[in-house]
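Reviewers of the previous submission asked for a worked example of the structure-prediction workflow described in the proposal, so we include one complete record here. The input consisted solely of the amino acid sequence. No template or homolog information was supplied to the procedure at any stage.
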Amino acid sequence: MKDFIFAQNDDDDFPIGAEGGLQFKIEYAPVGTGDFQFERLFNTVAYHLFEDKSWDWYEEHYPSAGHKMAGYAYFTQNDPRENDYREYDILLLQIDTDDELNIMWGDSGVANFFIRPQDLKNRDFTKVLYNWDCC
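From that input alone, the workflow returned the following C-alpha cells.
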C-alpha cells in the first residue's frame, strides 16, 4: 500500500471499530460553506453579502456532513486544501463520526480522502490526500 499525504495530522490512529457495508444513493449536494471552493463558486461579492444575510440558513438547508463519495467535503475545522493542497479538489471518500457504526474521529470529527483530477483520470491512487479533524 502506498503512503498517504497527511495534510494536518500524522497520527496513526484510525478510529473505525469494524468494517461496514456501503449502500449508494445519488443525491444533490451543493458546495458546503467550509469547502475552500465555496467563495470562488459564489464569487467574492456574493459571498460577502451571503455571509451577512443567509449563512446559517444555507448551512441548515444544505449540510455537507455525513458519509459520502464525491461531492463537496465537510470539515469541523478548516479545509486543509485552502492554501497548500488546492490541486486535490476531488473528494474520493468522506467518513463521518457515526455512533451506530462505532466510528469516532476525535471529538465527533470527520475524515476526508482527496485526489487530484489527473491522478483520478489515470487511476493513480498513490498520492491521496488524507485529512481528519474534530470539534
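The chain has four helices and four strands. We consider this example representative of the routine output the project will generate in years two and three.
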